[in-house]
Amino acid sequence: MTKKDLGLLILILVVGAVVAAINPRFLLPINLANTSNLIGLFGILSIGQAFVIITGGIELSVGSLIALLGVLFVDFIATRGMNWAIALPLILILGGLIGLAHGWLIARLNLQPFVVTLCGLLIYRGVARFYTADGTAGFAFGQNFPVLEFLTAGRFYGVPNSFIALIVIAIITWVLLHRSVFGRYLYAIGKNEEAAKYSGIRTQRMVMAAYVICGVLTAISAIYFAMYTRSISPASHGNFYELYAIAAAVLGGFSLRGGEGSIVGVILGTVLLQELQNLVNLLGIPSSLNFAVMGGVILIGVLVDQQWDVFRARRGMVAAARQGKAAAG
Amino acid sequence: MMELSNRIVPATVAGALPIEPFLVLENIRKTYPGVVALDEFSMDVRPGEVIGLVGENGAGKSTLMKVLGGVIAPDSGAITVDGATHDRLTVATSMGAGIAFVHQELNLFDNLDVAANIFLGREPLRAGPLRLVDRAKLREQVAPLLKRVGANFSPDTPVSSLSLAQQQMVEIAKALSIDARLVILDEPTSSLPIAETEKLLAVISGLKAEGISVIFISHRLHEIERAADRVVVLRDGTLAGTLPKSDIDHEHMVKLMIGRALKARVNDSTREAGAAALSIDRLRTPAYPDRQVTLNLHHGEILGLAGLVGSGRTELARVLFGIDKHLGGTMHLEGRELVLGSASEAVGHGIFLVPEDRKLTGVLLDLPIAQNISLPDLRSHASRFLVSAASEAATAKTQKANLGIKAPSVKTRTGTLSGGNQQKVVLAKWLAMNPKVMILDEPTRGIDIGAKAEIYNLMRRLAEAGVAVLMISSDMEEVIGVSDRIAVMHEGSISGILEREKFSQENVLLLAVGKQPK
User: Fold this and answer.
1) What's the pLDDT tens digit per position in A11-62?
2) Nearest CA distance, B280 vs chain A (angstrom)
3) Domain ranges of chain A
4) What is the tens place of the pLDDT at every residue in B210-265?
5) Does domain B23-112+157-257 have CATH number 3.40.50.300?
6) Are B367 and A197 inside 8 Å of each other by CB?
7) Are B359 and B418 in contact (CB under 8 A)?
8) How many degrees, rounded to 5, is the angle at CA B427 between CA B423 and CA B431?
9) Where in chain B is the domain with CATH 3.40.50.300?
């Protein structure tokens, strides 16, 4: 855990303590469980985004993908009677293929990530709405999938299984990003793609792989979101979720230029965002101000972080100058 | 219509050369830490004359340009403009004196049209508070300027649609728009094809006819021969000599450009080179698609690759390292045909490159030394797919000691090291693997003398261990002192290969400009 992560954790605890002091309901098991469920859902999505941002890219289509993949999943198992154990891997593969397509356009054809995924945002939303003829996809009365529902929306000793899923995914991706050869390559590419290429790294493949991972993780969270809401109106489901994911990464210390950030950071970022949402509800702040509070906090966070870096750099220079003087004298 | 110039122009503009120079440099000296860039250098410029300025890379031409442009102040000496003597020129006095530059790298905005580029920041405005650009007036002012440089395109042509020579015409027109009396062309033809070069030479004689002086810097001596009234030769920061029109020829220029005693000679071995490592046959690179390179590189030798900047050496290295695809011809590594789709494949074959641009492509400045060294060979530091930091650090420590990288620890951020130590990190990452062919592109550029010697010794050690070393270098002393053989490139192909007994600066330079050695 870096100093930045530690600072973020302290901020989360302080905000939590203040909210709890004002409104003790914050600490009720039901509130904590609800919040951690949401942390699980958005956390999985944000980790996917993190892989792309590490390479210096961005993935704007994940909100629309949540809608499209969610609609397809519900339709497959509720309307078409497909076994969920088949539908689930199918959706994950679809998510991976869409990620591969994005990665291919970006790495091989050299299109800008922003443009490619912005088009994806529009396309998948449109396709999702067309697929259901703008209707709502949902389960019929009495339709039950006990195992699937337990795995996604259920609880284990009171802990939402979505949160447990996040922890498992976080551990796996932490190893992948921070300990594996692949992870090291991604950081190198994010820092300086040319130099990485000149060191013999197949940079295009690595970038494509990052988008594939993002696609698969988005598909997983799409299924969780679908099973959480149980009914999906494709015009609004998942709106702005890409921005939640990007915001979590930025709060967690990622640089949109690439090459910086950690899994712990992006999870702490997600936690802080959900805590803020919860705070708006619990403190009686009009919920219409929801986005304004989030935006304000992110802006302050980034500003403090940047000023801190400037301060440290200046201190470093002063120290170096002093050493230089001492050496000269 | 714009006035040509509202300054005092000597009476005899078109006729015989007026004797009085308007710009005189006297005993200019400029030093940088450890280097004398200009040493007691003097020259003058008369109205309407074309001066060819030649010298090897590093002879002090850029420093001289910076002094004339007012960008740097000389340590001593005097600069006289129109009879007024200054210690130094500032950017403002330089512009006021009518000195204009056309750099090798053009400074045009290719998203704007010609007229907008020429009058950028000085646009004629319409009356009124909105500061709207008066486009009609702009065109009216630009058209005659374009005519003077012989341009056949209109003021509203987008710059992006112009050829390089046409873009240079725009730059020259820009110079004329500020009433230039002296236009300095810095290697204007180095990236131009022959037909375009003709156009540029025509523009130069047009300027001369108008009484505007030109300083024409070029490595292409035959162009200097054709265009210049006088040639000034720089060598090691000093004036090596001035040639009047009648004496301007290759032989005289080359003789003045070289002619210093060689200092260090790293290479004393007379060993025979081993078997062929890399055989390049009629290889065509993207930089010079119509030229071919044929070259053999042997195990155990250092082959120096000399040539002028822009002769296609770096582009050849990029192809050999798999960064660019070759357009034709073949490469063989130890007898087996080599087809490279990426740098990663070249690395797999044991062909390594120490690139020219260390900060951009050589090292990752933000990463610690150890991670830079392990990067190309990360898989061998990993059990299954997890990187072992211990194995990484151990290799890095070995290499750090081996190469004498001066840093507090292998965890030090590479960006904080000196240039020489950064270069050693680049070398270390390849030495930690097993090189068969090592290509070094300008390995000692920007590196202090001590580190230079270490890198020379290292190359020699590699060669002695049987590695085939290809060293691209523009430093004549280095090429002659370090190489076992020297191949010289000229405009995209090998113009000749020199064996040891034929080594001389003169021969290298002759081959580099496309002539036969003696």
Assistant:
1) 999 999 999 999 999 999 999 999 999 999 999 999 999 999 999 999 999 9
2) 21
3) 3-285, 289-329
4) 999 999 998 778 888 889 999 999 988 889 899 999 888 888 888 888 754 434 44
5) yes
6) no
7) no
8) 165
9) 23-112+157-257, 276-350+434-512
- In terms of CA atoms, which chain A residue is nearest residue B371? A184
Question: B276-350+434-512 has which fold?
Answer: Rossmann fold (3.40.50)
Give A13-19 contacts, CB < 8 A, sequence gap 24+.
Answer: A15/A272, A15/A275, A15/A276, A15/A279, A16/A275, A19/A275, A19/A278, A19/A279, A19/A282, A19/A283
* CATH architecture of the region A3-285: Orthogonal Bundle (1.10)
Q: Chain B partners of A199 at a C-beta cutoff of 8 Å?
A: 343, 347, 375-376, 429
Q: At what angle do helices B164-177 and B194-209 cross, to 10 degrees?
A: 20
Give the pLDDT confidence score for residue B275 in this predicted structure.
85
Rounded CA separation B351/B343 (Å):
9
CB contact under 8 A, A198 and B371: no
Q: What is the pLDDT of residue B34?
A: 67
Within 13 A of A30's CA, how many CA atoms are on the CB side? 2
**Residue A319 vs residues A314, A316, A323, A326: alpha-carbon distances, Å:** 9, 5, 6, 11
In a 3-state reduction of DSSP, which class is residue A114?
helix
Report the gap between the CA of B372 and the closest CA in chain A (Å). 9
pLDDT band at A323 (very low <50, low <70, confident <90, very high): low
Q: How near does any CA of chain A get to the CA of B358, in Å?
A: 9
pLDDT of residue B19: 66
How confident is the prediction for chain B on average, in pLDDT?
86
CB contact under 8 A, A181 and B342: no
- What percentage of residues in chain A have a pLDDT greater than 90? 73
Please tell me the pTM assigned to this model.
0.80
- 8 Å CB contact of A202 and B342: yes
Q: By CA distance, what is B373's nearest residue in A?
A: A199
Report the pLDDT value the prediction gives residue B9, as an integer from 0 to 100.
40
Helices (H), B368-418: 369-374, 389-403
Strands B386-387 and B382-383: antiparallel
Q: In this complex, is the C-beta atom of A312 within 8 Å of any C-beta atom belonging to chain B?
A: no
A198 vs B contacts (CB less than 8 Å): 321, 323, 343, 353, 355, 361-362
- Chain A CB contacts of B347 under 8 Å are 199-200
In chain B, the residue whose alpha carbon lies closest to the alpha carbon of A182 is B385
Distance from CA of B276 to the nearest CA of A (A): 24
Q: Is the interface score ipTM higher than 0.85?
A: no
**List of long-range contacts for B370-373, beta carbons under 8 Å, 24+ apart:** B370/B395, B370/B396, B370/B410, B370/B411, B371/A184, B371/A188, B372/B414, B372/B425, B372/B426, B372/B429, B373/B399, B373/B410, B373/B425, B373/B428, B373/B429, B373/B432
Distance in angstroms (rounded) separating the CA atoms of residues A268 and B311? 54
pLDDT at residue A189, as a whole number = 96
Instruction: Provide, as residue numbers in chain B, all residues whose Cβ is less than 8 Å from the Cβ of A196.
Output: 364, 375
A230 touches chain B (CB under 8 A): no
- β-bridge partners, B440: B354, B471
Taking CB atoms and an 8 Å cutoff, what residues of chain B touch A175? Answer: 386
A interface test, pick of B320, B321, B359, B366 with most A CB neighbours within 10 Å: B366
Chain B residues contacting A, CB < 8 Å?
A: 321, 323, 342-344, 346-348, 353, 355, 360-367, 371, 375-376, 378-379, 382, 385-387, 429
Report yes or no: B223 and B193 within 8 Å, Cβ to Cβ.
Answer: no
Pairing of strands B238-244, B230-235: antiparallel
Select from B190, B191, B137 the least CA-distant residue to B1: B137
Q: B374 and B399 in contact (C-beta within 8 Å)?
A: no
Low-confidence stretches of chain B (pLDDT < 70) are 1-19, 34, 57-58, 190-195, 259-273
